[in-house]
Amino acid sequence: MSQALVTQIYQACLQISPYLKGEQFVAPADSIASSQSNSNIIKLLHSNIAQQSPEAGKAYWLTRSWDLLIWQPLYIAMVSIYQLRTLPDLTSLIQRHQHGLVAGFYLTNLDCLEGDDEALIAAAGKQLTALFEHYRRELDLWVRCRPRFVEHLIADAILAKLELLQQAHPESSNAEILRHAKLWLYAFNLPTKHLQSLTLSSVDNKLILQRTSCCAVYKTTNGVKCDNCPRLTQKSKTCIN
């Protein structure tokens, strides 16, 4: 049953993005695994990003490195929970890294948890908190990466995916999405003040995210500020408290 569930997880993730591809593979030397030190690989990831966008500067290189490290684990957890009502063993995750891109993954342990949303979110938060701290400490060996900095990035990443969840399932009420947002923030031991980043659109009264962190992509040659960039002036949004 676990093999079947993991296969379903791989299929569901691939529907999200062709880059979110789960498959069994022999991990190359530059793979990123939770069960080993990845410091040299993470240094290489950061260096590749700096080489690809030298004009963007240190803030972009750091933020891009962090976002690439965490985007797959968080997506895998949310896709598994909300589509399949299960959670794989994220501590067994191996991520592909090639030339400044982290895309593709492999779960070496086929064990999966099953339960209600609240229990699975709590379990996911516990696993991902440990995994993300592992990544942060290793990134911090090469470039300053402090807990306060990644807190905002993690919170924004969580809330952004819940915003997408409501867009995919418009029948989900604002109250239900907010309840789940609280569960995720609690699971990651993040302050509930981050809920203030979720606002109501004056167009359709659905939740939208105003980020508190900036990806700094606008500093790249062809980059522009995101629609929900904190550096943009707020328009047509109502805060909910």
UniProtKB/TrEMBL annotation:
Name assigned to this protein: Siderophore ferric iron reductase
Native source organism of the sequence: Shewanella fidelis
